[in-house]
Amino acid sequence: MKRIAVLASGNGSNLEAILTAIERGEIQNARVTLVISDQEKAYALVRAEKHGIPRALFRKEDYPDRESYDRALLALLQANQIDLVVLAGFMRLLSPVMVEAFRNRMMNIHPSLLPAFPGRRGVADALAYGVKVTGCTVHFVDEGMDSGPIILQEALAIREDDTVESLTERIHRLEHRLYPKAIDLWVRGKIRFEGRRCYIEQAETGAPERLG
Ligand code: GRF
Does one domain contain both 128 and 92? Predict the structure, then answer.
């Protein structure tokens, strides 16, 4: 049984989608055993409580610097024997101490087709740039901002009348399908690495298939 910690700063709709996927058996042999937020008012914490999942609050003002924050976070994750860290709208960049400890065991979801439009305004930046296609990306976390190895991506067409709100909503729906899928692949040991490329092992042949 893999133990998952979800880190979220906001609404936590991705957290909810992951919990639902586990409850439906779409992800097996894994449980979310800890939800962590840096924001006291994050609705993700309320969702965790409703599901009876232990919660922890890590406020940045309680630590002198990023490194001590991340060391305390790491200590809690290790004390809870966490196998996989899932960032779901966690709005802090993690320092190398965390990245190194959870190399290829820490995922993030981003609302654009990386490496296009990284950063906090992925949806708005794509819309403002005028691209016709955008989407979402699940990737492993490395030392950079939204720059780690890509696990899954899915695209959607931008409509002429899209606003940041309408596009965000459609991307969220994609995210809610894609994140549980990526987690399930990881839990089942189906992701292989070659340099910065991720491959999914094909059950039937054992041959790796490049992710599209
Ligand atoms: C998602 O759009 C995700 O791509 C980004 O933060 C948002 C989190 O949404 N990293 P929610 O809190 O899961 O509803």
Answer: no
